[in-house]
Amino acid sequence: MERALVEQFADRGLSGDSKCIEIMKVAQSKLKVMQLSEENLKAYEKWHADYGLFQKTVMFLLRGIEFFHQERFPEALTYLVHAWTYNRQLLGEEEDYAMAADSSLITHYRTQCLKSLSEQACGLFESGDTENVDEGLQLMVELVVPCMALLQELGGTDSDQAIAEEIRSNWCDYLGQDLPDWCQEKLQDFLPQLLDCSGDLQQLRTPPAVWPSQHLAEWFSTVMQAVVQAEPDTVD
Hints:
Blueprint: H1 2-10, H2 18-33, H3 38-69, H4 73-91, H5 103-126, H6 130-154, H7 158-172, H8 181-195, H9 216-230
Helix pairs in contact: 1-2, 3-4, 3-9, 4-5, 5-6, 5-7, 6-8
């Protein structure tokens, strides 16, 4: 822990602040003489790995929330789902919240995004336009269904299960509607994937990387303020 703290003060990112330059130099000198036992080295390396994953989790969550409020649901879902899976790794089997992000916040946005993306796909499907129908079904096959499969495999929440059933019900309702033959055919080809998420399905793609920033705390504060303004009950 001591070495990890010293490293924070030795970060060259502080060189832009004249008040911090001397502290940075002292910290860098101290790092050169610090030695760790094998046991402490393993603990130090684990801390670094966990902190790196925590940073990635938070950055993916923030980017996902930003995209959600911009109604860019395809991009938002991939970031939110991967933030959730990374956070599960941090929690571990004992669900230790000491080095993890807020699970309830991730779950809320992931669930709402999954629902919103399915609704967007439904709107495209209902248009009756060939290109729109194909785009709507593509969103379902490449994003919604893989997300539902992952939640089913890893164990989602009750709200996840409720949204999944609602999505299935909404798409099955199209079977009773007067649709063109070509549209009915596409629907019938798609529904088995939606109804049985345990099969050999397309994997949810990994979103573009978000690089660590010296201003992560400021970014977090800005996004949380936007969340409070948009959804006051979401953040305690």
